[in-house]
Structure formats: structure tokens, C-alpha cells
Design goal:
Largest sheet: 6 strands, parallel
Radius of gyration: 17 Å
Order of helices and strands: EHEHEHEHHHHEHEHH
Number of helices: 10
Helix content: 40-55%
CATH architecture: 3-Layer(aba) Sandwich
Length: about 240
């Protein structure tokens, strides 16, 4: 059987570097592509663009905002997705309060206060206590600066406007891995447990020694979890 192509979608203000340790290993057996969620102010627009880039069938891995885009891809084209991994993410829409709280940072980005916005968005309290936060913040800041304020504004708008995907996840037929860091300060463990319970036959993988960014905080354990997911049989139901 041909190996599946793996499409990976990064979180906000991130690029392929967020998945670098996993790509190094997974690309030995699979074609791996990274699809940046940067091409629209709605999750639906971003999903449409990624579908136009992607092969006819593919495995899908999304992290943070990338996980939210992955859920929209699953809603829109379930027949094209062979399996899905959701990392550090949530199926729920922004609350009105959360959507409103993004607005001052959108205004600041447009006004040229980009460093202030990056400081707010790169929150070291979301990371595990054992993480080298200085080094990780440096890496994230480099990615954020490379992405720039225009991308940030589009991504923040898409996050504000995103739809609830709980009904989508209840219908999933494919192998699913829900992966989270034990110390995720953005989307807490209980939220991931809820996410996994929504999805028939989902496997919850808790990464010790990691917070919101398990791909970089605990790269080996996260890679192992993704390898187990990629090895699952495609047919889970009779």
C-alpha cells in the first residue's frame, strides 16, 4: 500500500519550524508538506486554499489554530482525509469576550506596535515548568517576526470568526490522535479530554514535560505519538 502524504498545519505566527523535529523523522517514510494558515481572514478561506494545494487523499495534522483549520477541512472534505491528529487545540468557537479581547492587539499590530503584540502572543506561562523558556520564546519570536503583522491580523480575524466544530468531530470515521502537553496553559488537559471524548475511537496522548508546544518542548515524545497514529489501521469501524 502506498505511504500516505502528511499535511501539517502550524499554529498562529508559526511556520514549518514548529514541526521540524517531527518532519525530520516522519519524512523518512512519508511525503510531508506544511500548509501555512495564512491565506484568508476566515477559517473557511484558509481551508479552501489548503484543499487546493493538497493531494487527493492525505493524513492531516493540525496544531493550535492549525487544528481548527484541520477540523474545517474534515468538515468540508472528509473523504479526502485518511486520518487526523489534533494538537493543542479546541473545537469551540471564540466566546464573545475572547473575540473582543483580540481587538486591541489587532489595532496595535496595525499601528506598528508589533513587538508589543508578539510579547502578548508568545506567552511563556503556557509552557511546561521544565521547558527552556528563554530559548523557546526566542524561536517563537523569530517565527513571529518572519510572519509579520499583516499575517497576524488575518489570523486573529479568522480566530475571532471561527465556527464551533463539535458536531463535525462527532461524525469522524478516521483514526484520530488528540495530543496535548500535560502542562498546556492555553488549552488545558481537561479541554483535551473533552475533545477526545467527542470523537469516536480517538486516542488521547498526553505528553509529559510539555505545555502548549509539545512539538518543541518534548519533540521525541510527540514524534513517537505521531508515529503511533500514522501506524494505526485506516478502518476502525465495521
Amino acid at each position: 500500500m502506498p505511504r500516505e502524504t502528511l499535511v501539517m498545519i502550524p499554529p498562529m505566527l508559526s511556520d514549518a519550524r514548529i514541526f521540524a523535529p517531527q518532519m525530520q523523522v516522519l519524512s523518512r517514510a512519508h511525503a510531508v508538506m506544511v500548509a501555512p494558515p495564512t491565506c484568508g481572514e476566515r477559517i473557511e478561506e484558509i481551508a479552501s486554499q489548503i484543499l487546493s494545494w493538497s493531494p487527493s487523499k492525505f493524513a492531516l495534522c493540525g496544531m493550535g489554530m492549525g487544528g481548527m483549520v484541520a477540523m474545517e477541512l474534515l468538515r468540508r472534505a472528509p473523504e479526502r482525509i485518511t486520518r487526523i491528529a489534533l494538537l493543542s487545540t479546541s473545537p469551540q468557537a471564540d466566546t464573545p469576550e475572547a473575540a473582543a479581547a483580540r481587538e486591541p492587539h489587532i489595532i496595535a499590530a496595525r499601528a506598528g506596535r508589533w513587538d508589543d503584540v508578539l510579547q502578548h502572543e508568545i506567552n511563556s506561562t503556557w509552557m511546561a515548568p521544565s521547558t527552556d523558556k528563554v530559548d523557546l520564546v526566542r524561536q517563537l519570536t523569530e517565527m513571529g517576526r518572519d510572519m509579520g503583522p499583516d499575517v497576524y491580523v488575518k489570523q486573529a480575524r479568522a480566530m475571532q470568526r471561527r465556527k464551533d466544530q463539535q458536531a463535525t468531530l462527532r461524525q469522524v470515521q478516521q483514526p484520530v490522535a488528540v495530543i496535548c502537553g500535560r502542562h498546556d496553559g492555553q488549552y488545558h488537559l481537561k479541554r483535551h479530554e473533552f475533545l477526545a471524548e467527542l470523537i469516536p475511537y480517538a486516542q488521547l496522548e498526553i505528553i509529559e514535560g510539555a505545555g502548549y508546544l509539545p512539538t518543541l518542548e518534548a519533540p521525541d515524545a510527540t514524534t513517537d505519538a505521531l508515529e503511533r497514529w500514522m501506524a494505526q489501521p485506516l478502518m476502525l469501524r465495521p
